[in-house]
Each structure stands twice: as C-alpha cells, then as structure tokens.
Specification:
Elements lengths: L12 H4 L3 H13 L2 H16 L17
C-alpha cells in the first residue's frame, strides 16, 4: 500500500477478496514472522544462483537498498 499511496481502508475488497483491515492484519502477522525478509532473501539467492538479473544493488538483509 505504501507505493500506491492508498491506506488499507481504501483497498477495494472486491479486488483482493478481503477487507482492508483483514489484509493489514495478515501483512502485520507476516511482517512479524519475517516472511517478507525471508522471501526477499530467497529471491535474491535464486537470482544469484541462476546468474539472472543484477542483484548487486539489492540488500541481502531484507531491506531495500537506499541510494
């Protein structure tokens, strides 16, 4: 939601199949469980092992690189 400029309440339930409140609860739960950081690391590892894409500017800590 941060990149779209919308709040969780503004997210259309029809598009996502769940309410903004429920989506936010799930996002928060996954964030606390470090799902996003783990997923980010796995994607970078996979890209690196394939030699696909440029991952040199990406962080392996789970946080986006700042320029």
């Amino acid at each position: 939601m941060a990149t779209s400029g919308r709040t969780w309440r503004q997210s259309p339930a029809a598009s996502f199949g769940l309410s903004g409140a429920r989506a936010h609860r799930g996002f928060t739960k996954w964030t606390k469980a470090r799902v996003w950081a783990t997923l980010h690391r796995l994607v970078l590892d996979e890209l690196g092992s394939r030699g696909d894409g440029c991952v040199s500017g990406a962080s392996r800590t789970g946080s986006p690189a700042r320029e």
